[in-house]
Here is the input.
Amino acid sequence: MKGEVVKRVAGILLSVCMVVSMAGCGQGGKDTKTETEKTGSTSSADDDKIKIGFSMKTVQEERWQRELENAEKWADEAGVELIVQVANNDSNTQISQIENLTTQGIDVLMVVPVDGNALKNTLDSVHNQGIKIMGYDQEVQAWNDAMVGYDSYEVGRQIASYVASLKEPGNYVFLYGDAAAGEAVENQIKGFHDEFGDFFEKDGNKLVMEQYCKEWAASEAMACVENALSITGNKITGVICMNDGIASGAIQALEAQGLSAYVTGQDAELTAVKRIMEGKQTSTLYKDTVVLSKAAIDTAVKLAKGETIEADKTVTWGDNTDAPWVTVEATVVTKDNIQEIIIDGGVYTEEEINAAETE
Here is the structure.
């Protein structure tokens, strides 16, 4: 998990073409368009062994690498076969990969959607084949037999919460993820705005720019902040970013002008934690990948067995009403609680944080 995560993830992925590129948008990299498949079993599955297909939108960010590694761990412990395919942020690739997964005898399909809207027809077909469908972390705008993950609206509020609570006057920029992510991003946007409330309606405070970042790219965030700085004469108080990769681009733009501002993020990437320690980034949102992946595998197994799923919420898409939604809590991380949440919590060691290279 931590410092060696990229190497370990690359080592366990078996590719049908080649191993997926681990380039992350936080470094300005782009995903490849290759297909990655991995099986979580070291031997041929018995006919009665539960098979779970895991369709992931990406593993470019460190957070998703941790998700994959932990999902593998829990699948192995549960004695189920996990077949993973990674779409590299391409909806057409994800559709093809899901179609491929359905030919491999899976009982349950877990989906982290590239574009939830684009999957509707494909997932309707999956449902009609008798395969259970479970949204993982992000809403799927199609048939769901269950959902495991975070409330994206609350995630948006949490991302914005620390900076909003400071009520620091001035100009602000809101930077969002890829619009293709659909409800997951739109709900977070609403959370951003609701958390700030009427802040931008008084005392000369302004939301000078809000922008989607295609493929969650740091380069797009950097360009947006450069534009905002030009418009405001280098006067920016805060940049509310939807993930740490986007935050890295915003910080690069600020530092190029010798400036700093309040900058938020999400995912608690190692480099982001280092930036918070250095005072370059204000906060990040930590999502415990161990807890989320465990809840997901447990729920998938229950779906496969036809067992009751206990959940505190429900989700409705299309004709399927009140599907169980197993929610997981996220934690806002600032310089004040890095020791407690990140270091004492075993996410990263102090040595790993100190050794991390930031942009």
Remarks:
- The radius of gyration is 20 Å.
- The first helix runs from residue 5 to 12.
- The domain at 51-144+289-328 is CATH 3.40.50.2300 (Rossmann fold).
